[in-house]
């Protein structure tokens, strides 16, 4: 396997899935075999095969692998709430060992795995562990998706400081516009000056998903 990546964000609903899909497509365009993974998902829907998550389904489809759904999304919960709370509602606990096992199985099939986190960096997994424990166990670098809106500078700087302080490698960040009325260039300039990691992509604002176009914007990952 070459290089895998963990995608986190400054908050929930800031475009992590679109950026994850774009990175998968970008790496596939380079001729790599790539798998995406969304280890934990909330807000899932019921199917005859069990709970499914629309983001994870897109990741599985783009990956193009004939693997079980739970390799991509080991933990799926129906309530659209923090996953450790959703797990507690059904008397379950999210176990890091299960996630790592699925990740390792995926990693044997491909050159690179792109893992999408849940929420922001400090979201708990269970009573004692958070996303940092997952990243440290996987030993993969982190890419921070910054949702460009009012307050994003503070959120991005705090997130970056915490990721590095947790002993994880911050490989870079992606500027992702999520508010058509917000001019994010000044925020991008400020963060470029203050973050000691590269800006990997400046995504365009899109009203609908266009993964090939978004993938073209990622030009610094080799």
UniProtKB/TrEMBL annotation:
<keyword id="KW-0479">Metal-binding</keyword>
<feature type="binding site">
    <location>
        <position position="17"/>
    </location>
    <ligand>
        <name>Mg(2+)</name>
    </ligand>
</feature>
<dbReference type="GO" id="GO:0000287">
    <property type="term" value="F:magnesium ion binding"/>
</dbReference>
<protein>
    <recommendedName>
        <fullName>ATP-dependent dethiobiotin synthetase BioD</fullName>
        <ecNumber>6.3.3.3</ecNumber>
    </recommendedName>
</protein>
<feature type="binding site">
    <location>
        <position position="55"/>
    </location>
    <ligand>
        <name>ATP</name>
    </ligand>
</feature>
<keyword id="KW-0436">Ligase</keyword>
<comment type="function">
    <text>Catalyzes a mechanistically unusual reaction, the ATP-dependent insertion of CO2 between the N7 and N8 nitrogen atoms of 7,8-diaminopelargonic acid (DAPA, also called 7,8-diammoniononanoate) to form a ureido ring.</text>
</comment>
<dbReference type="InterPro" id="IPR004472">
    <property type="entry name" value="DTB_synth_BioD"/>
</dbReference>
<dbReference type="GO" id="GO:0005524">
    <property type="term" value="F:ATP binding"/>
</dbReference>
<keyword id="KW-0067">ATP-binding</keyword>
<feature type="active site">
    <location>
        <position position="38"/>
    </location>
</feature>
<keyword id="KW-0963">Cytoplasm</keyword>
<dbReference type="GO" id="GO:0005829">
    <property type="term" value="C:cytosol"/>
</dbReference>
<feature type="binding site">
    <location>
        <position position="55"/>
    </location>
    <ligand>
        <name>Mg(2+)</name>
    </ligand>
</feature>
<feature type="binding site">
    <location>
        <position position="116"/>
    </location>
    <ligand>
        <name>Mg(2+)</name>
    </ligand>
</feature>
<dbReference type="GO" id="GO:0042803">
    <property type="term" value="F:protein homodimerization activity"/>
</dbReference>
<dbReference type="Pfam" id="PF13500">
    <property type="entry name" value="AAA_26"/>
</dbReference>
<comment type="similarity">
    <text>Belongs to the dethiobiotin synthetase family.</text>
</comment>
<dbReference type="GO" id="GO:0004141">
    <property type="term" value="F:dethiobiotin synthase activity"/>
</dbReference>
<comment type="pathway">
    <text>Cofactor biosynthesis; biotin biosynthesis; biotin from 7,8-diaminononanoate: step 1/2.</text>
</comment>
<feature type="binding site">
    <location>
        <begin position="204"/>
        <end position="206"/>
    </location>
    <ligand>
        <name>ATP</name>
    </ligand>
</feature>
<dbReference type="GO" id="GO:0009102">
    <property type="term" value="P:biotin biosynthetic process"/>
</dbReference>
<feature type="binding site">
    <location>
        <begin position="116"/>
        <end position="119"/>
    </location>
    <ligand>
        <name>ATP</name>
    </ligand>
</feature>
<comment type="subunit">
    <text>Homodimer.</text>
</comment>
<keyword id="KW-0093">Biotin biosynthesis</keyword>
<keyword id="KW-0460">Magnesium</keyword>
<dbReference type="InterPro" id="IPR027417">
    <property type="entry name" value="P-loop_NTPase"/>
</dbReference>
<keyword id="KW-0547">Nucleotide-binding</keyword>
């Amino acid at each position: 396997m070459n290089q895998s990546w963990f995608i986190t964000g400054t908050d929930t609903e800031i475009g992590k899935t679109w950026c994850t899909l774009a990175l998968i497509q970008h790496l596939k365009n380079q001729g790599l075999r790539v798998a995406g993974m969304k280890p934990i998902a909330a807000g899932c829907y019921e199917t005859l095969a069990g709970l499914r998550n629309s983001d994870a389904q897109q990741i599985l489809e783009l990956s193009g692998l004939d693997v079980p759904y739970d390799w991509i999304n080991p933990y799926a919960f129906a309530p659209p709430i923090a996953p450790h709370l959703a797990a507690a509602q059904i008397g379950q606990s999210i176990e890091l060992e299960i996630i790592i096992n699925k990740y390792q199985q995926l990693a044997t099939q491909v050159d690179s795995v792109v893992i999408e986190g849940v929420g922001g960096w400090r979201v708990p997994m269970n009573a004692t562990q958070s996303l940092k424990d997952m990243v440290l166990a996987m030993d993969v670098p982190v890419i921070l998706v910054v949702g460009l809106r009012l307050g994003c500078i503070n959120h991005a700087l705090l997130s970056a400081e915490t990721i590095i302080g947790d002993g994880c490698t911050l490989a870079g960040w992606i500027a992702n516009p999520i508010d058509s009325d917000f001019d994010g260039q000044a925020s991008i300039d400020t963060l470029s000056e203050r973050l000691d990691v590269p800006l990997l992509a400046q995504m365009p604002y899109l009203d609908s998903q266009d993964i090939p176009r978004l993938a073209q914007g990622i030009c610094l990952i080799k």
